[in-house]
User: Which sequence fits this backbone?
């Protein structure tokens, strides 16, 4: 540690940076909420589209036009899923997506420097892996929320049940 930077000063800087990110994240949510009126906003759609490219890898088509169509249906299903959640949960999702839509807080939470829409699959995989394997509980919770919502909305569609080996309900 340098002579001019004591442990106390380093802790103060860390606390100050954390407070700054909390304020920035709250401001981001007000400026760019990820959910409005129970539906994903454009910034929220960009986050979930990028997350789906990684989380659903192997279940998505590789042909670009078909991939776009499947991802668009997936985002519509996410809208339906989110609209069915309680208002408080929708607010939490809106806040998370708002924070992830702003460069500074996205980088802090995920390490992803590119915008979601511009990031390569490798960059997205690395960002989600950092969130999942970190010791920071907030990042892990954010990862699990994104992954769980993505999987729930995608695999709730009957057309995707065969990917899970599920033939559908038995006739009674």
Assistant:
């Amino acid at each position: 540690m340098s002579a001019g930077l004591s442990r106390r000063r380093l802790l103060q800087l860390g606390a100050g940076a954390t407070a700054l990110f909390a304020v920035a994240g709250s401001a981001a949510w007000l400026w760019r909420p990820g959910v409005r009126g129970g539906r994903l906003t454009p910034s929220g759609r960009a986050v979930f589209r990028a997350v789906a490219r990684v989380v659903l890898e192997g279940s998505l088509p590789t042909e670009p036009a078909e991939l776009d169509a499947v991802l668009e249906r997936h985002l519509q299903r996410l809208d339906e899923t989110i609209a069915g959640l309680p208002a408080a949960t929708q607010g939490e999702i809106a806040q998370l997506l708002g924070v992830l839509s702003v460069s500074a807080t996205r980088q802090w939470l995920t390490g992803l420097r590119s915008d979601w829409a511009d990031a390569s699959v490798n960059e997205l995989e690395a960002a989600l892996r950092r969130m999942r394997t970190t010791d920071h509980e907030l990042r892990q919770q954010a990862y699990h929320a994104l992954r769980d919502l993505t999987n729930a909305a995608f695999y709730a569609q009957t057309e995707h049940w065969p990917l899970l080996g599920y033939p559908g309900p038995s006739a009674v």
